[in-house]
Input
Amino acid sequence: MMPKLTNSHHRPEDEGAPNAVAPPAPRKPTTAAKVTPTAGISSWYVKASQPVDYEIRSCHRVFDPNRTDLLDAGSSGESRAQRRFVVVDETVDRLYGAELRRYLDHHGVTYEIMVIQSGEVRKEIDVVLRFVERLDAFGIDRRREPVIVVGGGVVMDIAGLAASLYRRGTPFVRVPTTLVGLVDAGVGVKTGVNFNGHKNQLGTYSAAALTLLDRRFLSTLNRRHISNGLAEILKVGLIKDEALFDLLEQHGKLVLDENFQGRSPEGDAAATAILEAAISGMLEELEPNLWEETLERSMDYGHTFSPAVEMLGLPSMLHGEAVCLDMALSTALACRRGLVDEDECARVFAVMSDLELPTWSPLHTPEVLGRALHATVRRRDGQQRLPLPVGIGKALFVNDVSDEELATAIDLQREMALRGSMEAA
Output
């Protein structure tokens, strides 16, 4: 059964407090059909489905005491329960912890706040287990007291995985505070932690009851992390939305300078348009393939080589930076094949540089990238399924990239990067 998403990021911010969001509907039971016994052995075939509905909503000033979005979501809908287990990362706690506590106190909520260290190197199963221990000690009513998660992509992945495991699924509400969280980690259903040297090796598919998008949190994000999130937005533009690429080409520097806060009329219009297009584009790709049963996914652009490179680059390399390096290499591959002409290739590298993203790294060697591609083939059922851009805004998938072609593409990538002097640190 096709999952259906409630895409509400176009909701006006001044409509007031929303109604409660109901938990996922129960599975529809089916009567198991008994198959004719063979050689005295009985067997049964069971087929069932579970609808998936979740909402992503723009919400200005989510901790405003007059708003109840954060407390209405994910509960039974009968009454707003006044107990919450809240997870935040250390940076969010330092910057917004007092405001969050005032909000919860104002609404008479009994709560516990768990602070998790941020950063990809902390994204481990031990943190998930500590989370579950604290959650169990708090003793939530899982049908009326959803977990609240406030932070970047790492804390959302950790808390989402823990919630999906605790009692086989506990509702949770997300408030992303980074640009990557707003446009990528906060809109899908994947959770996960790193394991055995591999990125997101352990994980589940688990939808949050509600994700609240408040771009005000980006005001305290440093410039590098805004740039980091712009990589995931650029991915959508390069692979499926030329108009979004044009927006980044024309206004990318401005929204970077203004931290997506709309400090000028032009910056406000650009920030709104860019975020709307990026989130809509991501959801258009996710909705028909939410569980990734189809392995040819255009949103895998930038994610063929980057998982291995990112793990090697820790702790200094950020996720979006690894993704941009991958996109630069894939663009070079496409240029070598004539799928992208030289002018388009130059435009792509120029926008990456404008967004202050790296376009080449010393980690991009034939040996490292060859191993990365081999690991990706294992994940993609024995084929490369490598998305390459066709011009700007379109893509195709290939399965025949050779070691020799990869080496020549690396050379072209480095040549293009050196023209713009945007080598990775």
